[in-house]
Amino acid sequence: MDIHQHSATALAALGHDSRLSVFRLLVRAGPDGLAVGEIGAHLGLAPSTLAHHLGTLRDAGLVVQVRQGRQIFNRVDFDAMARTLSFLSAECCKGVSVVTDDAA
Q1: Which among 8, 23, 30, 80 would be 20 to 30 A from 100, CA to CA?
Q2: pLDDT tens digits, residue range 81-91?
Q3: What range defines the domain where residue 68 resides?
C-alpha cells in the first residue's frame, strides 16, 4: 500500500468520534498500550462496539494487538502514525499555482 492510500485509510479510520477517542487514549498510554477492558473502562464503550472500533484501527494499520495470556493489549503503531502525520505536513506552505480555465 503506498503512502497516499495508507494515509487515506488511516484518516478514514480516525474519522469516527469513538475511534478517535480510542486512538488518542492509546497515544496517551504509550508503547505499552492498554488491555481491551481498560480501554472500555476509560471510554465507557460496550465490548462489542469497542472490538469493532479496534478492528477498524488495526485494519488501518494504526493499532497493533498482542495477546498476553487471556488479554489482548492494544498499542499505537507510532511509525504508522508518524508516516500519516508526515504525509499531511510534507508540503506545508509550499504554495500552489493558480489554475486558470483558458477554455472559457
Answers
A1: 8
A2: 999 999 999 98
A3: 3-89
Q: How many structural domains are present in the chain?
A: 1
The answer as to whether 103 is a domain residue is: no
Q: Which of 95, 86, 92 is nearest to 7 (CA)?
A: 86
Is residue 104 included in any domain, yes or no?
no
pTM as predicted: 0.88
Cell output for 84: 500519516
Task: Render pLDDT for 22-55 as a digit per residue (tens, 0 to 9).
Answer: 999 999 999 999 999 999 999 999 999 999 999 9
Question: Left if phi > 0, otherwise alpha if psi is -120 to 50, otherwise beta: which for 85?
Answer: alpha
DSSP state of 65: E
Nearest to 54 by CA among 70, 32, 77: 77
